[in-house]
Amino acid sequence: MIVRVSDRVEPGYSATARFFHWLVAALVLLMMPIGIVMANANVGPAQDVLYHLHRSIGVILLPLMLARLIYRLTHPPPPLPVTVSAAQRRAAGVVHWALYGTLLLQAIVGWIATSAYRAPIWVFWMFKLPPIWPVDRPFSETLFGVHRAMGFIVLVLLVLHVGAALFHHFVLKDVVLRRMVRG
């Protein structure tokens, strides 16, 4: 994929990379408010539905992030425009890899915490995942705290990621965002 900037040609992301990016973004942006609302909702059927949705999306995100990581490792992203400074390149790399790692680890921590609590993990009410940890409520509560903290870390990383993309698009007026939108 090619994005033209004046008389230079800048490479864009592949359709596969864009698919992974936007699907993960949509699921994370859906999951975060569900997680916040469910944690603060009154105990009852509505809260149960939110927990099931949150867990179901997490079950989808884990293999999706693994596939995305494998794709990223086997298909390096296009180089950033030459106008992007070395410091910005390092910052972009740190934020991207932190997002990958945190999202993967958060899903695993959520699964272990839910297993240790012994809450069922129904996937969109179709099938149930097996527990992967023995029952241990105190350990589960600790891990749920870690899971919540990781959610705030993901939020900060997303703000940095989206903020940088918008800064490049609206202030610097370069092709950084367009590479992920149009390829």
Structure overview:
The chain has 183 residues and is mainly alpha-helical. The protein has one domain (2-181): Fumarate Reductase Cytochrome B subunit (Up-down Bundle), CATH 1.20.950.20. It has helices at residues 15-40, 45-74, 86-117, 137-172, 176-181; strands spanning 2-5, 8-11, 121-123, 127-129. It has a two-stranded antiparallel ribbon with strand order 1-2. Strands 3-4 form a two-stranded antiparallel sheet. α3 packs antiparallel against α4 (137-172). The chain is elongated.
Helix-strand layout with pairing:
Elements lengths: L1 E4 L2 E4 L3 H26 L4 H30 L11 H32 L3 E3 L3 E3 L7 H36 L3 H6 L2
Antiparallel strand pairs: 1-2, 3-4
Q: Whole-Å distance between the termini?
A: 5 Å
Form type: elongated
What CATH architecture do you see? Up-down Bundle
Q: What is the total tally of β strands?
A: 4
Q: Kindly estimate the percentage of residues that lie in beta strands according to DSSP.
A: 5-15%
Order of strands across the biggest sheet? 1-2
User: What fraction, in percent, of the residue positions are helical?
Assistant: over 70%
Radius of gyration: 19 Å
CATH class: Mainly Alpha
Largest sheet: 2 strands, antiparallel
Helix-strand category: mainly alpha
**CATH homologous superfamily classification:** Transmembrane di-heme cytochromes, Chain C
Low-confidence sequence ranges? none
Any idea how many domains?
1
CATH topology name, in short, is Fumarate Reductase Cytochrome B subunit
Subcellular location: Cell membrane
Keywords: Cell membrane, Electron transport, Heme, Iron, Membrane, Metal-binding, Transmembrane, Transmembrane helix, Transport
GO molecular function: electron transfer activity; heme binding; metal ion binding
Cofactor: heme b
